[in-house]
Known about the structure:
The protein is of the alpha/beta class. It has 16 helices and 20 strands. The model has no long low-confidence stretch (mean pLDDT 92).
Amino acid sequence: MARIVVVGAGVGGLATAARLAATGHEVTVFERADTVGGKLGRHVHDTPAGPFHFDTGPSLLTLPEVFADLFEATGAKLDEYLDLTPLDPIVRHVFPDGSTLDSCADPAEFAARIGATLGDRAAADWQRLWRRAARVWAASSRDVLRRPIDSPRDLAALAWRLGDLTAIAPGRTLRGLGRRHLTDPRLRMLLDRYATYTGADPRRAPAALVAVPYAELTYGGWYLRGGLGTLADALLSRCLDLGVVVQTGTTVTRIDAAGGRVHAVRLAGVTAPVPADVVVANCDALTLYRDLLPSPRRLAGLTDRSLAGFVLLLGVAGASGLAHHNVYFPADYDAEFDAVFGDPGRGVRARPAADPTVLVTVADDPLVRPDGHEAWFVLVNAARQGTSTGAVDWRRPGLAQAYADRVLEVLAARGVDVRDRLLFQEIRTPADLDASTGAPGGAIYGTAGGLLRPANRGPVHGLWLVGGSGHPGGGLPMVTLSAQIVATDIGPAA
């Protein structure tokens, strides 16, 4: 039985802790925040009408079988803890010309909806792309997403062995794939948005990310009654039932690893180190290799630019008639990415996008809002917090409120004006996400955006990296798969 310390009680950390405890290990989780869940955050705003509950992180659960497997591996059933509700539409897409397309988990039905809205040629284009996406998904889900990938050579070797290089198209971008297969600019826009699921720019993101919409639109999108934050509650409950010790409000400041292997972790305000045979870091790779266990070689590889998000939490009187997830696209998608990412090579600074894509999530759930009201989560892509060319200093006085006003103006221009129905408005900037979760710069999916992430196995014996910053990437199912990879690699107690 190993003494295992998990640094961070996000979904990846809790899932890893539960799996390891179920196989006989002694597991302790240290979380710097006062609550568990990490980026799977929650917020309650009380009003005379009643409380409004918000998910401040993920708002969609995909690949539910990944979570069913996690609970079964720890001796429980998913439906004993969580109430899953399938969504149709999964996302309502509203394009610049006013046309609307609702996605769903039935490929034939979605193709029919495309045909009805965008025309038969667009539907045929999508079905041709879908066949290619199926091949990419089959390759990645079988041999990439569930096993360690320690280097680009490992990924290339797998692709050669699978014989799927034609579908995966190494060297081609997601934008290039869309232009090759899709003639309708609205479908190209829809496909581009999936690059942002990994924090990436579609003009630079690899074409293999076509597997992301395939997974969502084949296996469905789900809501958890009471909010996505109930997943954190369920994982904490499993951990405690299995004997995991979870200490919140406890900050790990250092990992001791003399002689090429981990020995202990250091806690803020505590003199004596906490012994550990194994350390699982559920934090950003940048935090791990810059602060907890400085590793210049690993740190040098974290150069990808990743998206952050600007968020409004709105209490709205009355009913809007919106879908659960609604995406309002701008007339010029490229202008948004130019603003959000900037161009440090040419000295072009990142900035708040003047006409951004706006995601509005409205859960039709009486558990999260007073009767006769709606709790709106509004998200736009944003540059990370910072003062460098590729970042924005969101702490600058007046900026957050001015941009919040601009986002509401954009929504109004696109036919969704709620400014006269607002009970309250709260703002969450990338600086706030950085402060609350330790995500460097407020990067939603980790500082290493894109397809290839830092390896799960660390540079010293007994160290592993779990969560959205590492392989296989960000998002709830990928983070949960990273926990499976790490727990399998560590193995059961002897």
